[in-house]
UniProtKB/TrEMBL annotation:
Keywords of the record: Nucleotide-binding
Species this chain originates from: Streptomyces prasinosporus
UniProt keyword Nucleotide-binding present: yes
PANTHER family linked to this entry: MOLYBDOPTERIN SYNTHASE SULFUR CARRIER SUBUNIT
Record's protein name: Molybdopterin synthase sulfur carrier subunit
InterPro entries per record: Beta-grasp_dom_sf (IPR012675), MOCS2A (IPR044672), Mopterin_synth/thiamin_S_b (IPR016155), ThiS/MoaD-like (IPR003749)
Amino acid sequence: MFTVNRLRNQQMAKVTVRYWAAAKAAAGVAEEPYEADTLAGALDAVRERHPGELTRVLQRCSFLVDGDPVGTRAHETVRLADGGTVEVLPPFAGG
């Protein structure tokens, strides 16, 4: 019971999601705030707020969480820290 009550009292992390290149164009903003515990939760909220083109762009993106590449880790396992940043990086052409 203690664990359930403890989880109910936890607040989600407040993070800034920053969009780059095609993601920025699809979102129509450079960055915006979200509340989520994991990268998966943040991306679900992004998709809900921006259905359509941004959802398609996200399928091709890589992500940095507080400057660290997410790589192939499952997004459900990537915890977010309060005050953190999620960078949304579409594939870039050139060098």
